[in-house]
Amino acid sequence: MKIxxxxxxxxxxxxxxxTAIAAQAAEPIRIGEINSYSRLPAFLDPYKKGWQLALEExxxxxxxxxxxLEFVDRDDAGKPGNAVTIAEEMVSKxxxxxxxxxxxxxxxxxxTDFAKQNKVFFLAAEPLADAIVWKSGNRYxxxxxxxxxxxxxxxxKEAAKTGAKKWATVAPxxxxxKEAVAAFKKELTKLVPDxxxxxxxxxxxxxxxxxxxxxAVEAAKPDGIxxxxxxxxxxxxxxxxxxxxxxxxxxxxxxxxGEPEYLEPLKGEAPKGWIVTGYPQGAIETPExxxxxxxxMKKWGEAPKLGSVVxxxxxxxxxxxLKKADAYDAESLVxxxxxxxxxxxxxxxxxxxxxxxxxxxxxxxKTDVKDGAGVMVDWFYADGADYQPSDEDVKSMRPAx
Amino acid sequence: MSQSVLSVRNLSKxxxxxxxVSDVSFxxxxxxxxxxxxxxxxxxxxxxxxxxGQLKADAGQVMLNGESILGFSPRKVWRKGVGRTFQIxxxxxxxxxxxxxxxxxxxxxxxxxxxxxxxxxxxxEEAMDLLALVGMKEQAERAAAILAYGDLKRLELAIALAxxxxxxxxxxxxxxxxxxxRVRLMQLTADIVAERNISVLFTEHDMDVVFAxxxxxxxxxxxxxxxxxxxxxxxNDARVQEVYLGGGxxxxxQAHG
Amino acid sequence: MxxxxxxxxxxxxxxxxxFLVACGLSLIFGVSRVVNFAHGSFYMLGAxxxxxxxxxxxxxxxxxxxxxxxxxxxxxxxxxxxEILILKRIYNAPELYQLVATFGVVLVMQDAxxxxxxxxxxxxxxxxxxDGVVRIFGEPIPEYDLxxxxxxPIVLCGLWLLLNRTxxxxxxxxxxxxxxxxxxxxxxxxxxFTTVFFLGSxxxxxxxxxxxxRVSINLLMDLSIIAEAFxxxxxxxxxxxxxxxxxALLIGELNAFGVLxxxxxxxxxxxxxxxxxxxxxxxxxxxxxxxxAHSAGQVELPIRPASTLAKSVAGLLLVxxxxxxFLAGEFAIVLATDVLxxxxxxxxxxxxMSNGGMVSFGHAAYFGLGAYGAAFVIKYxxxxxxxxxxxxxxxxxxxxxxxxxxxxxxxxxxMAMLTLAAAQIVWSTAFQWQDLTGGDDGLxxxxxxxxxxxxxxxxxxxxxxxxxxxxxxxxxxxxxxGYTLRGGRDNPNRTESIGINLRQHQxxxxxxxGMFAGIAGGVYVFSKGSIFPDxxxxxxxxxxxxxxxxxxxxxxSGPVVGAGVFRLLEDEISRLDYWRAILGVxxxxxxxxxxxxxxxxxxKIAMKAGFEHGEEASS
Lengths: 401, 257, 619
Prior knowledge:
The complex is a heterotrimer of chains A (401), B (257) and C (619).
Chain A: H1 2-25, E1 29-35, H2 41-60, E2 69-75, H3 80-92, E3 98-101, H4 105-118, E4 122-124, E5 141-143, H5 148-162, E6 166-170, H6 175-191, E7 196-201, H7 210-220, E8 224-227, H8 231-244, E9 251-258, H9 260-263, E10 275-278, H10 287-300, H11 306-324, H12 330-337, E11 341-342, E12 349-350, E13 362-370, E14 373-382, H13 391-397
Parallel strand pairs in A: 1-2, 1-3, 3-4, 4-5, 6-7, 6-8, 8-9, 9-10
Antiparallel strand pairs in A: 10-13, 11-12, 13-14
Helix pairs in contact in A: 2-11, 3-4, 5-6, 7-8
Chain B: E1 4-15, E2 18-29, E3 33-37, H1 44-51, E4 59-64, E5 67-68, H2 74-79, E6 82-85, H3 97-108, H4 124-133, H5 149-161, E7 167-171, H6 179-196, E8 199-203, H7 207-213, E9 216-221, E10 224-229, H8 231-235, H9 238-243
Parallel strand pairs in B: 3-8, 3-9, 6-7, 7-8
Antiparallel strand pairs in B: 1-2, 1-4, 4-5, 9-10
Chain C: H1 2-32, H2 39-56, H3 63-85, H4 95-117, E1 122-123, E2 133-136, E3 139-142, H5 143-165, H6 167-177, H7 179-184, H8 189-210, E4 216-217, H9 221-236, H10 241-261, H11 266-280, H12 308-327, H13 330-355, H14 364-380, H15 385-407, H16 412-432, H17 434-437, H18 455-478, H19 480-490, H20 492-496, H21 502-528, H22 538-551, H23 558-573, H24 579-593, H25 597-608
Antiparallel strand pairs in C: 1-4, 2-3
Helix pairs in contact in C: 1-5, 1-6, 1-8, 1-9, 1-10, 2-3, 2-4, 2-8, 2-9, 3-8, 4-22, 4-24, 5-6, 9-10, 9-11, 11-16, 13-18, 13-21, 13-22, 13-23, 14-15, 14-16, 14-21, 15-16, 15-21, 18-19, 18-21, 19-21, 22-23, 22-25
């Protein structure tokens, strides 16, 4: 009996081994995904859940041309030097087909430059810096999320309608904040030539001392306030401002503040009536979003955040790309990516051939508080395609290939 | 005195109104062993520190071979030919005995800025000669950190002799040593200074040592020089006896620091 | 006028918040001489615990204030556990060991808090009864701010009474002045340190808990508060609690009015003030010079030229490094290049720290300056990689020349803190001066010349530059100059009394170390293609300290071994979840269990086996 069992076991093992070999024949397509998971878990956890969901769906549907899609994801600990080393490893050791990911702008830029130098395809998922597709743009880098300037332009358009002329700005004191303020000023003065900027505050990022900042804004007595702070800085800014009535009878426009990542922690203290870019989650009724929302809820037991959409769209973009491309070398991928149309939970978008920016948009609306939680109301989907610079501008900003 | 090596005039120092040293004057001639004694707080250390440049004097004059050295930094005083040993030995624990002496020689030959040639190969013979002189040749390659205390004292003496000084300042040279060793170390010192014609100023608690080796003694009390002269003169000085009455053991030769 | 008065009050409330954190740090340092990096983690923990108690304890039995106190007590207990398990074992070790051990605690706490409380930002409720504003001269002032303004002086007075009116306080003050003396009085020092840690951690927890109604609680709170708390403690004078209060006022008001005048410069401002204070008053506003209590650390053995065995091992290693590219894959070459760079960086720190006795907590400044120096040549002068690699050590040496002049005037942990301040000035300048450095977005496109473009060619370039520099440093360590630095570390008195201008030599040594770190920075920037302010930030400095420690402080080959192990370890474990906690545990274990480091451990074994000649240090 024992011998029989043993032999049966052998046969079974051989069978398993054989199947494994057969599966190996359909070699997975490996994607190198680099992000600051340990540094910014609040933003990257939903992002990861987003791409995990999408990956599961793609593979359940048979993968790409019969090959499964596989993500090799690594944590860069928020250090750009690490990110570059990891990129090296992914390309030379892990043999990935392409690179994707990054959240922080400077890490996105470091990998952008790596992609150019090493001629590797890179899809920058989350970083907002304009430079990724413009000043430091290159043949091998594409970007998914709407850039700082695109989102600032969306807000400027709405801000212009309010009639506020005297503006104060509050932005974290680093590249992103400065870029966001410069873009808003430029776009707003295009629409409202007599707008003036009477006060600029530059708190240290993640270290705002909100009391003095709020008071300095107050002292300038502006009609409107443009805010770029986010995360913990935003929470403090809101609380100190609410206490002192700084936002009363003033127009406030605020970048990204409608994203659940930032709005949810504020709970009942979320500001009311701010014009923001963000993501009204459950309220979006388009069929493609509904499907995504339900699948996400089912898999993770929580509502998706904006990062989840971005993560999902990374996979959606790459799956579409890999299905379209004839060959998976960097040049073929780049050529296929130009003008690529992607269907996604946030609607259809295109990767622009001229500057490699996706036309994925975002939602613009007003904040409000319902049942003790911050929500977006009166929102609409701002299509990224409507907020792009002219082709001549792009040409002048982007280095020649 | 025309051949005095060290000539001190009216040296004074006070700390916040308290006179630590007041108006001290003395001379030291070539080859002389001069002991500076006095009860605790008499101003010996203050005096010493002014001579070697660690402390600024309020007033007075210190001449080394006719040149004023008052206010010089310890480094400069050393360069002028003054060597010193410390009450608590100051040596380099992480170097060998030989390297300790070599350091002093390297500094003497102004080679401390050399960043290329290995230090351990420099002035080896000179260093070994000095170690032989103090009887430490056999221990040359041992780490200073593991030396017995008496040997550390000898090592320090070798270091102090490295730049062929004219004057040695020795702060409590035998402190912390066993009585037998004290005598041996002081005898060694006396022999070397005699042979090399070096002058020595030293402070000391052990009167055996003082009376056995000092050519001349100065007694300080409350910052003032109260007596000075040969061993017998000082022994018989009434004021000195008065000062030391409390201790009482000055003349039995048993007092230990 | 009323506006400025209100701004003044706002500054006061910030100052109080800052003081609450800083006073515990200062207290702990004063008594135990531990520079406690984990103080920021205790602050963060206090905030998270208080938030959770307020939010989740059913029926709010504790209420807001009960939760705040309970949180502070819980943090105090955690502090005591850390003290007993880790710090108690290393009080006699040099400052470096303690700093690195507490940094290990920081790493563990980050992951522990992430695991327990989750990654999302938390926004606590306002304090009951203090959620409005009062009008003072018509200006709205938050009630909670007024409470904080009052709380600062209350805690100050409480501490003063505790320290001056109780037997415990007398002992603590005595220990602050002279540890040895207290020990010789027969006081149970171990118990005293534990209680001080309890109180210090309690204050950190309290500081964090009191921020719940003001700030959003997030996982970046620890490192952002600790840099500021250090500034306050150093300006006030390490160990002086009234000093910390004055310094907190200074920084709080500087911030409040700084944002009105120079809103862009607030990052640099605090560090500039710190540097100025230290130049004028090296021990801080109310600090006292360090009592020269020589810590009873292990006595170091004389250095000896490598034995035949060690030489053959080094020779084999070199041959291995030369033929490595023919055997290993491309990524191994990239990783090996990294190891070479960090080996040089660590060796340059080891050069001044171990051989020269000058502890630098901010060595990344010179790494960063070298990297930026090279990048500037490429970006602004259109120079080649070759010229840039020359500019790197020059720029770093220039920085070290300026900062070193101030730093060598201090010693021990005061010097270490000044080097930290210097590094923060470099970092914040790089961060702020966007036109020159690109700010946070850095400088891109700094790649090697054509001939060095392949990974293999660049590896050989790194091998020549880094390997050559390490050998040069080794040569210097054995030279009269190196011996002079070593002598200055062993016994500064003796050094001065054999006619050596120690400070000048130390200054030169500092500049050399900076220069070599600059070479490492230059090689680094071309291997990554870009440079960001991160390379001059505190974590990079800590990396270097950890590498030196890992390899062994007292071993010349230590930094090379340490860099290799650290870099490969980091690469390996960063694939795991909660890798920071793992790294933290490894760091703490090394400090506590094997303080001689890896190379030191190997040497010990070799000596025991009789391969290396050496005397056992008996004292």
